[in-house]
Design a protein that fits this description.
Elements lengths: L3 E8 L6 E6 L2 E6 L9 E4 L4 E4 L1 E6 L12 H10 L2 E6 L10 H14 L3 E4 L15 H6 L6 E2 L9 H14 L2 E4 L12 E2 L2 H6 L3 E2 L1 H18 L3 E3 L5 H12 L4 E5 L1 H5 L21 H13 L4 E2 L8 H4 L16 H10 L6 H16 L16 E11 L18 E11 L2 E5 L2 E2 L2 H4 L2
Parallel strand pairs: 1-4, 1-5, 6-7, 7-8, 9-10, 10-13, 11-12, 13-14, 14-15
Antiparallel strand pairs: 1-2, 2-3, 5-16, 16-17, 17-18, 18-19
Helix pairs in contact: 4-6, 6-7
The protein binds N-carbamoyl-L-aspartate and zinc ion.
Length: 437
C-alpha cells in the first residue's frame, strides 16, 4: 500500500495548516512542508479539514435479504463517500442477525469489500420477536466480535425481557441499543401526533410512545447496573429524561439522526412517502431541543439510521410507505448545516459526536482516535467551504429515498482513509481490489 500525503489541512478545523503523512496504516508524520515519498499519493487539501474517520452506530444495509434495496457493497460505498470508517449494520435483515452465522457473514463480507468496517449488530431477541433472548455470548465471541445488540425496527417492549437482556449484556460487556417505541401507543401510527397529522388525517405517533420507554429503560439499566443506549432520540421530552438519568449517574447514552435535527413535520403536507420515518419527524421545537442537547452533550452522538427502501415502497400512499430514509452520504453535510453553521458545534465538536463518542459508546479501540503520530490512519478530509446539491440518483446507495433531494448543503467529504488506504476520493469509492498491491 503506497503512502499518502495530505497537504495543507487544519486538524479538527483549527490551528495552522499542516501536512499529514500516512504510511504503514498509521499517521507517520505531521508537520509543515513535508516532502512526499516518491510512491506517495498526494491529496492537495489546502483550506480543508482533517477529522478522525466517522463512526455510525445505526445503519441498515439490508443484506442478507433485501439486496434489491442495498447491499453491503453499495452501503459500504455510501459510507466511505460519507466519510465513515466504521458503521454498525442493524440486525433487521432476512434472515435476522440473531446468530453468529449471520453476524460473522456480515462482518466478513464488509472486510472483503474493504471500504469501511461493517460491524454487525446482533439481535436482542430471536427473530426480533421480543420473546426469547438470542445467544449474545456466541455472537460476541465470533469472528465479528459483536459489540452491540438491538432489535431496532422494533422495541424490546416486554420489561422483563429488557431487564434480562440488560443483565446478560452487562455480564458480557456489550451494549444494548433500544428503539424506544411503546407499541401499544403506536398501533397504526404513521406520523408525529400533533396538529399537522390531525389536519392531514394521518394517524399519530405520540411523543409518549418514545419517552415512556426511555424512562423505563433508564430505570431498568440503573437497577441492573447496566448500560443502555437510546437509538434515534426524537423529542424534547426524551432530552429532559436523558438529563435526569445522566444526573442520577445512570449509564445511558443516546444518538440523534441528522434528519431529526434538520427536518420537521411541516414537510408532511406533500403526503410524500419519503418523509415517513420511525420515529416520525417531530415539531420544529423538538428539532431545536435535539440540537441544543447534542451541543451540550446530553445527546452523545449522531447516527444516520440510513434506511434504504425500494421506489415502490416509497412512492405510494403515505400510510403504506415504508418508514426510513437514506443518510450515510448526507450526514456530515446536515451536521454542518444544523450544528456548525449556527455555531452550536465547531469541527472539534463534530469529531466528538460523529467519531470519538460513537467509538467510545461501543468500545471500538481503533476508531475515534486522536489525530497524532502513531495513531491508526482512519481519517476523513472535509472541504467546509464547498456546497453540493443532493440528487438521490447520484448517491452510491442502491435506493434513492433521500429526504434532501434538490437541497443544497454545505461541506463535502473529499477523501476517506481506512487504516491508511484511500477508500473514497473526490466522489469515487475505491474498493480494495482497485489499488491492492
Ligand atoms: C428502519 C428500517 O427501515 O429498517 N426504519 C426507520 O424508519 N427508521 C428501522 C428503524 O430504524 O427503526
Ligand atoms: Zn429504529
Amino acid at each position: 500500500m503506497s503512502p499518502v500525503l495530505i497537504r495543507g489541512v487544519r486538524l479538527y478545523g483549527a490551528g495552522d495548516p499542516v501536512d499529514v503523512l500516512v504510511d504503514d496504516r498509521q499517521i507517520a508524520e505531521i508537520g509543515a512542508g513535508l516532502t512526499a515519498p516518491a510512491d506517495a499519493e498526494v491529496i492537495e487539501a489546502t483550506g480543508q479539514i482533517l477529522l478522525p474517520g466517522l463512526v455510525d452506530l445505526h445503519t441498515h444495509l439490508r443484506e442478507p435479504g433485501r439486496e434489491d434495496t442495498e447491499t453491503i457493497e453499495t452501503g459500504s460505498a455510501a459510507a466511505a463517500l460519507g466519510g465513515f470508517t466504521a458503521v454498525f449494520a442493524m440486525a433487521n435483515t432476512d434472515p435476522v442477525a440473531d446468530t453468529a452465522v449471520v453476524t460473522d457473514h456480515v462482518w466478513q463480507r464488509g472486510q472483503d469489500i474493504g471500504l469501511v468496517d461493517v460491524h454487525p449488530v446482533g439481535a436482542v431477541t430471536v427473530g426480533l420477536a421480543g420473546e426469547q433472548l438470542t445467544e449474545m455470548g456466541a455472537m460476541a465471541a465470533g469472528a465479528a466480535r459483536v459489540k452491540m445488540f438491538s432489535d431496532d425496527g422494533k422495541c424490546v417492549h416486554d420489561p422483563l425481557v429488557m431487564r434480562r437482556a440488560l443483565e446478560y449484556a452487562s455480564g458480557l460487556g456489550v451494549l444494548i441499543a433500544q428503539h424506544a417505541e411503546e407499541p401499544r401507543l403506536t398501533v397504526g401510527a404513521v406520523a408525529h401526533e400533533g396538529p399537522n397529522a390531525a389536519r392531514l388525517g394521518l394517524a399519530g405517533w405520540p411523543r409518549s410512545a418514545e419517552e415512556s420507554i426511555v424512562a423505563r429503560d433508564a430505570i431498568l439499566a440503573r437497577d441492573a447496573g447496566a448500560r443502555v443506549h437510546i437509538c434515534h432520540a426524537s423529542t424534547a421530552g426524551t432530552v429532559e429524561l436523558l438529563k435526569w438519568a445522566k444526573g442520577q449517574g445512570i449509564s445511558i447514552t443516546a444518538e440523534v439522526t441528522p434528519h431529526h435535527l434538520l427536518l420537521d413535520d411541516s414537510r408532511l403536507a406533500s403526503y410524500d412517502g419519503v418523509n415517513r420515518v420511525n420515529p416520525p419527524l417531530r415539531e420544529a421545537s423538538d428539532a431545536l431541543a435535539l440540537r441544543a442537547a447534542l451541543a451540550d452533550g446530553v445527546i452523545d452522538a449522531v447516527a444516520t439510521d440510513h434506511a434504504p427502501h425500494a421506489a415502490q415502497e416509497k412512492c405510494c400512499e403515505f400510510a403504506n410507505a415504508r418508514p426510513g430514509m437514506l443518510g450515510l452520504q448526507t450526514a456530515l453535510s446536515v451536521i454542518a448545516e444544523t450544528m456548525v453553521a449556527p455555531g452550536l458545534l465547531d469541527w472539534r465538536g463534530v469529531a466528538r459526536v460523529m467519531s470519538e463518542n460513537p467509538a467510545a459508546i461501543v468500545g471500538l479501540a481503533d476508531q475515534g482516535r486522536p489525530l497524532a503520530v502513531g495513531e491508526p490512519a482512519n481519517l476523513t478530509v472535509v472541504d467546509p467551504e464547498a456546497r453540493w446539491t443532493v440528487t438521490g440518483d447520484e448517491l452510491a446507495s442502491k435506493s434513492t429515498n433521500t429526504p434532501y433531494q434538490s437541497m443544497t448543503l454545505p461541506a463535502t467529504v473529499t477523501a476517506t482513509l481506512l487504516r491508511g488506504r484511500i477508500t473514497a476520493r473526490d466522489g469515487q469509492a475505491r474498493r480494495r481490489e482497485v489499488d491492492a498491491p
